[in-house]
Write a structure and sequence with these properties.
The structure holds two protein chains of two kinds. By secondary structure, chain A is mostly helical. Chain A is built from six helices and no strands. Chain A is globular. By secondary structure, chain B is mostly helical. Chain B has three helices and two strands. In chain B, strands 1-2 form a two-stranded antiparallel ribbon. Classes of the chains: A mainly alpha, B mainly alpha. Chains A and B meet through helix 1, helix 2, helix 3, helix 4 and helix 5 of A and strand 1, strand 2, helix 1, helix 2 and helix 3 of B.
């Protein structure tokens, strides 16, 4: 069996929490509770990002995703006062079929991975590879040197999205 | 392939589970904002895969890509939610079964 290190245990626990609350998000029919469940899921995911030696992305995940994007969702939900979805059966059969197919495909992948664990003594590629020190400066240096153009283009995109969102959501005062 | 004690298969399985949950949500929910949330979840699953491979291959480009994706997701959320607000002002609903003007 694969070795169980503390890092792996923490990662698996964080991933489990993320998956659990993602399930809660999909199941809940009240959209406000869905958003709150997704916040928990994204927080757990950012713990996983730290363990994958990406602390910068973990911070961005918490600040931008959980902090800004989901608060924006919550804000719009409260603005629109969306009612809970009514329980409804036997509509959209194709969608049911497609989602069942997706679950089956994932189950097959899961089973094949588990079987691979069982057959070999250790997972392929087991080595003494240790993660490098969690470094924030290195990806930032890469972002501001080699990928500077993408970074600047991104700022233009965000400005365009800001103006576009304003133009879309503005209420027409005179037709 | 192991990154600091985490096998890559764990990362990929978690990412696959999150993606499937998001896909099921996007297909089965009828509230447009819930569908949008499910799409965000799928995007996060993709980010997790990219970061897993970036850590396994000791490559920093993956982190840069994920950074750009998160920023683009912010822009997308702003525009998408503005569309929902405009839609709600127009039709008083965001139930995707009742928004069928373009459906033949």
């Amino acid at each position: 069996m694969a070795s169980l290190t503390a890092t792996r245990l923490v990662f698996d626990a964080a991933a489990g929490i993320a998956i659990l609350f993602a399930g809660v998000m999909v199941i809940h029919r009240n959209p406000v509770k869905s958003v709150l469940a997704l916040v928990v899921s994204f927080f757990a995911l950012s713990i996983g990002y730290v363990l994958l030696s990406a602390p910068l992305i973990a911070a961005v995940q918490v600040i931008v995703y959980a902090g800004a994007i989901l608060v924006l969702f919550l804000f719009v939900l409260m603005l629109l006062n969306v009612p809970e979805e009514a329980r409804q059966t036997s509509d959209r059969p194709i969608h049911r079929l497609l989602s069942s197919a997706a679950i089956v495909v994932f189950a097959v992948a899961l089973l094949s991975v588990l079987r691979a664990y069982g057959s070999t003594a250790s997972p392929p590629g087991t080595g003494a590879a240790t993660a490098g020190p969690a470094d924030i400066a290195a990806p930032a240096r890469l972002l501001f040197s080699e990928h500077l153009l993408s970074f600047e283009a991104l700022s233009v995109l965000l400005l365009a999205a800001l103006v576009g969102a304003f133009a879309l959501a503005r209420r027409e005062t005179h037709p | 392939m192991i990154t600091g004690g985490i096998p890559l298969s764990d990362v990929l399985l978690a990412s696959g589970a999150l993606f499937v949950i998001g896909l099921v949500g996007a297909l089965l929910r009828r509230n447009a904002i819930s569908i949008f949330l499910s799409i965000e979840l799928m995007m996060n699953a993709a980010n997790l895969t990219v970061l897993g491979y970036a850590a396994a291959l000791h490559n920093l480009e993956g982190q840069v890509v994920v950074f750009l994706v998160i920023a683009i997701a912010a822009a997308e959320a702003a525009v998408g939610l503005a569309i929902f607000v405009a839609l709600f002002q127009h039709t008083e609903t965001i139930d995707v079964n009742r928004i069928n003007l373009l459906k033949w």
